[in-house]
Amino acid sequence: MPLPRPSHAPVPGPARRTPPRPSRTRPALLAAGCAALLALTAAVPSAAAPVRPAPAGTGAVVLDWYDVTARTVAATAAPTQITNSRTWAVGWIAAARAAREAPGGGPSRGRFQDAAVASAVHDVLAALAPSRKNDLDTALAATLAGIPDGPAEDRGVAAGARQARAVLAARAGDGLDPASSNTPFPVPPAAPGIWQPTPDGYAPAIQYGNRLARPFLLERADQFRLGPPPALDSDRYRADLEEVRAYGAADSAVRSPQQTETANFWYSGSLTLYTDALRVAVARSHGSTADRAALLALFHAASVDTQIATSDSKYTYVRWRPVTAIRTGSIGTDPAWRPLHNTPAHPDYPSGHATYAGAAQAVLDALAGPVTEPFDLTSPTAPGVRRAYTGWDQLTRDNVDARVYSGIHSRTADEAGARLGETVGRYALRHADRLLSGRL
């Protein structure tokens, strides 16, 4: 089911179709073990807002370790986004599985879950980012100091350590490290429609190896491979090219200041921008520690699988980027045309930003509800700008528009990407119990 069509300025050329809005049916998407996840609350106005102390098991520890994870990944970031997404996924899958082991009810269950989550995330991060071990040890000591001593705490710590070891072992050699992600791609001979290195820099292709990596939930990288992009002699292709030529040019006369701001804001990496957005969903949840950990596990597992599926479609069709099409193609050739932003070094179809957004929207719509109280986001590529959002689909809309206004993607690549991401996200939700129970 396609995601909502974003609104944008009029496009030269033929009228463009508007896909229907996706269904909002939520319970059918979830496996039995996740059916109680994440209702809305309006208590937290922004991703940076402090969290009040809460009783054990209510989810406050998840926020603490969310922030620890974010700091750790930022401090030790790999050059490949999929590697950083993997770090989040491994840590929170271990945490979610450990929290599900909690026995019985009452205060002891919450104490077990809090200790399990802290222990699991600590151990995974210490293994994957050993330079941060002292900081991680300090954070773990602070969490455990807030949990009453006793068998529940001890068993939770043990469960977290056990699941961390298990998930780390299961994901060893999964091909999501930077060297594997950037496996060299042999550039095909230049031809109409075929990707070639792009200015400025004409860097070699990146992320080719993602399609060779082992997913978390997908059966294989090509499971949801997209159909081919529009033919070069089609009306859709011509309209796409005319739109990006007009609205994505560095010196565009038709792109509005608001559209330029959108392009700048969403030029940053998807993981960076969605880290704050996802924290809003977790902070506003009424869910338990286990519920919130499950949301994070599913979000990041779906993100990794989406990046794998994106690479599969990209390197199957190897579609040229707009800058190459405009400078060397047969439609209105303009060798001097420049996009607003430099073009990333991989093929056009589909947009990776849009696939990430589609997967994120699918998971957050299902587990946090499609609408929430306003929250603000900032972006490192748009200093001083704050944008307010009230629904996850609005982030998808801006992602789709931004890549056109940046001059680096066709709208077809963006819309197809959002649909692919949504498909992978919904698949992850349907198979949630398989992820969370360890039956992989």
From TrEMBL:
Biased composition annotated in UniProt, kind: Pro residues: 1-13
InterPro entries: PAP2/HPO_sf, V-haloperoxidase
Domain of life: Bacteria
Region (Disordered): 1-26
PANTHER family with a match to the protein in the record: PEROXIDASE-RELATED, PHOSPHATIDIC ACID PHOSPHATASE TYPE 2_HALOPEROXIDASE DOMAIN-CONTAINING PROTEIN
Protein name: PAP2 superfamily protein
The species this protein was found in: Streptomyces polychromogenes
Organism lineage string: Bacteria, Bacillati, Actinomycetota, Actinomycetes, Kitasatosporales
